[in-house]
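A quick word before the example. In earlier lectures we treated sequence and structure as two separate objects. From today on, think of them as two lines of the same record. Here is Transposase written that way.
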Amino acid sequence: MTQKLNTGAPRKCRRYNEALRAEALRLASESRSTQAAARQLGISPKLLYKWQKAVQPVIEECSREDESAAMRQRRA
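And the structure line, produced from the sequence above:
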């Protein structure tokens, strides 16, 4: 049985700043392919999907508030 030897320093998680995240989300929203956007930026598609999922509830909440405001204006 072969075992994988742990050579070198342990892998560290990469940290991405807010500017890169915002650019990645913008690029993914403009592109037809999230995977292509991730490849272009050199990040994992899974990570980009995770960022999109984290932002999605905020976007949905804002759109609900906009709809409510529009309904109130129609009634008035």
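Notice the following. The helical segments are 18-30, 34-41, 45-75. We will return to this example when we discuss secondary structure assignment.
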